[in-house]
Design brief:
Length: about 375
């Protein structure tokens, strides 16, 4: 058997078949009869940021009081909605700017008994602090068997990254963080990769960047630039950073190339194949997404969302209602099944969580692998 064959078998053996079967049942049967409780949670731990990105306005948002660990505890302890969370994203802003980040993660881990995966994304501008925080988190989660996935944002090599992020010298700092994290990987088992937002400015450099990263043993996750009123608050940036008519061939070419890398262990090929249909043919998205069925997001100002690409569905501080009450509110559930799934999702290019959903929506994935068709 060749190396790839062995790798695939190892991967298959390492899959948790119980979780997979439960997920498949949830997506294909249970969801038709009842509202699924959230298993995928994103917590926006702050909206502060030490970057000045061209494609995201979070760094310009006014600051308000951020929930402390004690306030998170008061909110989450009595609310059963958090009991079934399995996958948590610790998000920002730049979450490394929270000096109590490790303490906060410790609390989340205590509060969510079914948690088995944590992911986080950082701009990597504060190497020392990020390395200390990551090691502290790994010390907490490793004995519990919880997996960490860490993505470090890089939107180009050298000055390209500095230009996109608006921080001279930012690239060097981020690379220093990545190098430190790779050293940390020699002592702890965690997944590390880079995230590249593809936009007009860096579209033509995407594959060159991937070669650079792969030479350093780093995975690259490409994300097409998106614009949202909530979360990134960047609708006003669209004219400057979005793709232009003259980018069309280059963009379709890149997506087609990524889609052609179809392999059982590369679930992202499904997403890219679907994005080709969306951008080239104007077809609606068919890539499944966990946030349509079992996702929840909340932020440090009290806002609650089914998904960060869509408007908030409530605020637990203003309404004095629990997150669970907001999640299960019939009016909100109606909004999710009517407005969100039917009007917003068909035009959404977010890759976030698609691998989670594809593993569970196994029928659609197997069909794609056999026929190349994502519909
Ligand atoms: C909002 S950031 C927060 C984490 C951290 N500050 C960072 O930049 O890595 C989360 C992810 O969104 C990506 N992102 C930023 N602006 C985006 C946009 N307009 N469209 C798609 N992704 C975007 C970032 O590159 C990052 O991977
Ligand atoms: S993408 Fe990340 S680093 Fe850039 S402004 Fe937004 S939150 Fe900050
Ligand atoms: S497809 Fe997009 S808009 Fe719809 S739930 Fe998923 S991330 Fe949100």
């Amino acid at each position: 058997m060749d190396g790839n064959g062995k790798l695939t078998l190892q991967k298959l053996a390492s899959l948790d078949w119980g979780k997979l079967a439960a997920g498949t049942f949830d997506y294909n049967v249970r969801s038709h009869f009842q509202t699924l409780p959230p298993k995928v949670l994103q917590v926006i731990t702050n909206y502060r940021c030490n970057s000045r990105c061209a494609m995201c306005n979070i760094w310009q948002l006014p600051h308000k009081h951020e929930l402390s660990v004690t306030e998170f505890r008061a909110l989450m302890d009595p609310d059963p909605i958090f009991d079934g969370v399995e996958q948590l994203t610790v998000a920002g802003g730049e979450s490394s700017l929270r000096t109590d980040l490790a303490e906060l993660v410790t609390y989340f881990v205590e509060r969510m008994p079914k948690l088995w995966a944590i992911s986080t994304v950082t701009n990597g501008f504060l190497p020392k602090r990020i390395l200390e925080q990551t090691e502290a988190v790994l010390k907490i989660i490793a004995p519990r068997g919880i997996k960490l996935s860490m993505s470090v944002s890089l939107d180009g090599i050298g000055t390209m990254h500095d230009r996109v992020r608006g921080i001279p010298g930012g690239f060097d700092k981020t690379v220093e963080t990545l190098t430190g994290l790779q050293e940390l990987q020699q002592r702890y088992d965690f997944w590390l990769g880079t995230g590249y937002v593809v936009m007009h400015e860096n579209l033509r450099h995407a594959l060159e960047f991937r070669a650079w990263a792969q030479k350093r043993g780093l995975n690259v996750g490409f994300q097409l630039v998106g614009f949202h009123e909530s979360y990134l608050s960047n609708l006003d940036r669209q004219n400057d950073v979005d793709f232009r008519p003259e980018d069309r061939d280059e963009l379709i070419g890149l997506m087609t190339r990524l889609a052609s890398e179809r392999a059982w262990r590369n679930l992202s090929a499904f997403y890219w194949s679907d994005m080709v249909r969306m951008y080239r043919d104007g077809a609606p998205r068919s890539t499944p997404c966990p946030f349509t069925l079992e996702g929840l997001a909340l932020d440090v100002y009290g806002d609650v969302f089914y998904c960060l690409s869509t408007p908030r569905i409530g605020n637990f501080l203003e309404e004095k209602r629990s997150v669970g009450e907001i999640y299960y509110d019939p009016k909100n559930l109606r909004y999710r099944s009517e407005e969100m799934r039917k009007r917003i999702c068909p035009g959404c290019n977010s890759a976030c969580g698609t691998e989670i959903a594809l593993k569970k929506d196994v029928k659609q994935y197997v069909k794609f692998m056999l026929t190349g068709d994502t519909r």
